Amino acid sequence: MSHHLPVVETFHSLQGEGMHAGRSAFFIRLAGCSVGCSWCDTKHSWPMESHPKQSVTTLAAEAAAAAQAGAAFVVITGGEPLHHNLDALTQSIRAACTLPVHIETSGVDPISGSPDWITLSPKRHQPPRAELLAACHELKVVVHEANDLLFADVAAAQAPQASWLVQPGWQSTEGQQLAIHYAQSHAHWRLSLQSHKWLQVR
Ligand code: SF4
């Protein structure tokens, strides 16, 4: 259990993606990711050592301030946040405020931190653990090419409890066409867009 974690940034904005899109959220972006997606839009977050460590109590105090300013929940993202044990961080957040704690993960590490909401965004080249598929609340598959949809289907079969979303890769014309058609032709799937990027908000 770590009481100090490498932090890329914290900010209060709107959740741009997934089932909670459009809601006020406080983001904690932790450093460190070894998953290595070629299309990653947060490559600056990959090296842990490039980002200073902060105490979980400091982060929790920021979350409490965001709650006062209207945040509806906390999002722990990355990087790959579950490269770290999140027990101390979520305990501190819960001691400081009543905000639910969401985690955005690729699912390659064990669950820690007892999150209230798990967004699982699995990657074809490093498939997620079965425990994450079984526990996630939303399964959000990024689509660049047709094979991503085959992968989405296999993952969804292992996550029947989750909401299923296909999200086009940013600026991927093929991904947009495939995801739109998939959502239109599969009743249990919905389209997720990175609305914060379209609107150019953080
Ligand atoms: Fe980037 Fe997320 Fe892939 Fe890590 S898992 S490389 S942070 S998209």
Task: Tell me what you see in this structure.
With 202 residues, this protein is of the alpha/beta class. The protein has one domain (4-199): Aldolase class I (TIM Barrel). It has helices at 56-68, 87-96, 130-135, 146-157, 173-185, 195-198; strands at residues 4-14, 24-30, 53-55, 73-77, 101-105, 117-120, 138-143, 163-168, 189-191. A 9-stranded mixed sheet has the order 3-1-2-4-5-6-7-8-9. Helix 1 runs parallel beside helix 2. Bound molecules: iron/sulfur cluster. The site of iron/sulfur cluster has 12 residues, from loops.
Index terms:
binds iron/sulfur cluster, TIM Barrel, 9-stranded mixed beta sheet, 9 strands, 29% helix, 6 helices, alpha/beta, 202 residues
Bound molecules: iron/sulfur cluster
CATH homology superfamily = Aldolase class I
Number of strands: 9
Amino- and carboxy-terminal Cα gap = 30 Å
Q: How many domains would you count in the coordinates?
A: 1
Structural class from helices and strands?
A: alpha/beta
General form: globular
Helix content: 25-40%
- CA gyration radius, whole angstroms: 16 Å
CATH architecture: Alpha-Beta Barrel
- The main sheet orders its strands as 3-1-2-4-5-6-7-8-9
Q: In what range is the share of β-strand residues?
A: 15-25%
Weakly predicted, low-confidence segments? none
Briefly note the CATH topology name.
TIM Barrel
Chain-wise SSE layout:
Blueprint: E1 4-14, E2 24-30, E3 53-55, H1 56-68, E4 73-77, H2 87-96, E5 101-105, E6 117-120, H3 130-135, E7 138-143, H4 146-157, E8 163-168, H5 173-185, E9 189-191, H6 195-198
Parallel strand pairs: 2-4, 4-5, 5-6, 6-7, 7-8, 8-9
Antiparallel strand pairs: 1-2, 1-3
Bound molecules: iron/sulfur cluster.
Residues 33, 35-37, 40, 42, 45, 78-80, 106, 123 line the site of iron/sulfur cluster.
